[in-house]
Each structure stands twice: as C-alpha cells, then as structure tokens.
Model the fold of this input.
Amino acid sequence: MSTAALTRVVIVLGKELETSNVAEIIANNPRYVVTTLRMNEIAKSASLPDADVVLVDFNMMGDEERQIFSEVRANASDKPLIVVSEKLEPDAMRHLFKFNVDDWLSKPVEPEALLDVITNSVRAKRSDSHQVNAVISCVGGAGATTVAINMADIACKSRPKRKSGVALVDLDFSTGNCSYLLNMVSTFNLGTVASAPSRIDQEFISVIQQKHDAGFFLYSFKRPEVNTDPGSIELVLRLLDAISLEHSNVFLDIPYYETPWRSNVLSAVDTYTLVTELNLPAIKHTLDLIEHIKELRGGHLSMHVIFNKHSRKLFGARITSRRIKELLGDIPFSYLPSDGSMLGEAADRGVLPSEISTRSPFLKKLANYMETARISTGTTT
Done:
C-alpha cells in the first residue's frame, strides 16, 4: 500500500474544541490508529508521535493556530498535513498554503470525504518508495497463488541489489498454500496473537518471516481459525502494516472467498492483478470483483485481468479477445499459457518454476506483464 493497511493518524485539536467529530469518524474505523493531542501539548512537546498523516482540527485561524502550524510543520515536515476548520477568510487560506497543507476540508465534514482525503494523501506520499500489489483469485482454482509466487520471484530478479525489499504475504489462512508450494511450512501459530494484535511490531515480523533462497521474504501460515476469530481484522491489518513498513515491494495472495478484512485490504493496495479463467462463470465473477473494487476505491485504478491456464485453439477460441474487451471495457487483460507439466514438477519438488525452466513461456508472459505495469520496479503507471 503505498498506503499501508493500517494508517497512523495524529489529530491536533484546537483549544476551543471540547469534542471532535473528525476524531470520532477516524477512531471508529479499524483501518486507523489514532493519537489525539491538544494544541497546548504540541507547544510543550519537542516532537510529534510517529504517524503517516497529521490532521489539525480547529474552528477559526488565530495567532495561536498559526504558531501551532509552524511547530507541526517543523516536527513533521515530511508528513501529509490535513486541515479541518470552519470557513476561512482569504488571509487565513494563504497561511495554509504557506505551511504546505496537503488538503483542507470545511465543516461540517462528511465521513466519506474525510477518509478519502486521508487515504489519498498518504498514498501519494508513499507511492514513490513503496508498493503493495494484490494478486486476487476471482474463482477457486484459478492459480492466483502460483501467479503471486512467481511475481515475487520475478521482482527479485529485476532488482538484485534490493531483494530484501520484496515480500510475499499469503492471506489464505485456510490452506497457507504458498508455504506448501515452496516447501517452507511455518509452525508458528498466528492465532495466538489474535487476542492481542498490538504485539505485532517490527521485532515480531522479524521472528515470523522466512527468507527464500531467491531473496524474497515469505509470510504464510495455515491457520483456518484466524478466518473466524473476532480479532482477525485488527490482526491482519496490523500484520500488513508492519510488513509494508519492513519491505518496499509486497505481493499479497488474496483468496476468492470473503473474509472480514478483505474489503479493508482491497481498498488500500496500489495494484490489482485479478487471476481468472476463460469461461463465462469465471468472467462473471471477475466482473463482480471489478465492480466491488471500483466501489471501494473509485477513480484511477492500476488493475489488470489475467486469464490463466490459457490454451490456444487451432480453429479459434470459444470466447474471443474482442468479446472479452467488450465485457471488461477499459480494464486491460492478458493471457498466461497453460504449462501444467513444468508447474506440476515445481510443486512436487517444492521449488520455483524458474528453477525448472528459465525459458518457460508462462514466466516470460508474466514478466512482460509486470514490466508493462511497472510492478517489479516499485512504481505504478
């Protein structure tokens, strides 16, 4: 994510505010960790708590507010700064520009507009150095796990000096199949921290991560109970937050079925690779998923549909590329050729397909897609 799954927000409240509707909106959303400070606390402190974004909530601009803005910017010069206030006079607006404010919202604030501004500000700030790529199965058995594993491998090969920046995160806790395909099954019981997700920090990440010989780090656990645990949302979001801080290029293997955290994750990632098959039921599920993601995110999306296990027909396909383009509209798509023999051997031996054949058409097509989408380099188009 260039925006991580969990966003840390520092809210600075004006001295005249007894309560803050803005703080309540943000605190009630599980995607945010909120620290609330009063303006007089900022004046006494030499620094701000670590955060992804700073939000200042006040009514009118006065001398004290101008001084606080100066101190906030001095202590958080590289963080997005958002202001919420009553309608301001032109002179006050000029002061906001002076302090390089990323956005301003006039009261009363709509919850959806506020959360969108926070998300967009954080995403824009992180996009230059971090990227979180969702690889999503549209239907069961489409092969998204295989695609995600090989995307992580290709990313390592494209950035040999920065291999440690690549991570593969398996969000299918029902099977933990990434670890099985790579013969790296973890014995760690992730469910033990579901009741206390605040334990998840960088030290915790260093304990549970496994490093593949290809260079990427693997986070994969077969723990079906996590899917139904009441604390699973905060557990997964905190886990992804910590991982995305540790690694600059993260690949998420997301299963086709619904989970409590699925929408939260899908609303925060940078790129979407939808893996499906070339039949009408699978295409219908793909269209449903595209619509769902658009409802979550709206606007410009870096999204691509991959039709996996594709075999060329001598006398034409049942569903033509022209028909697919009509159905998908402006969403680009491509095909990955069926290579069951090579992929099956890799699975049986617990190795990467690139260790079986570096000239595989499957790998070449996948690498071409990643280069076109600029996924392996850590930047999106």
Q: What stands out?
A: The chain is about 40% helix and 20% strand. The longest strand covers residues 302-310. The domain at 7-126 is CATH 3.40.50.2300 (Rossmann fold). The first helix runs from residue 21 to 27.
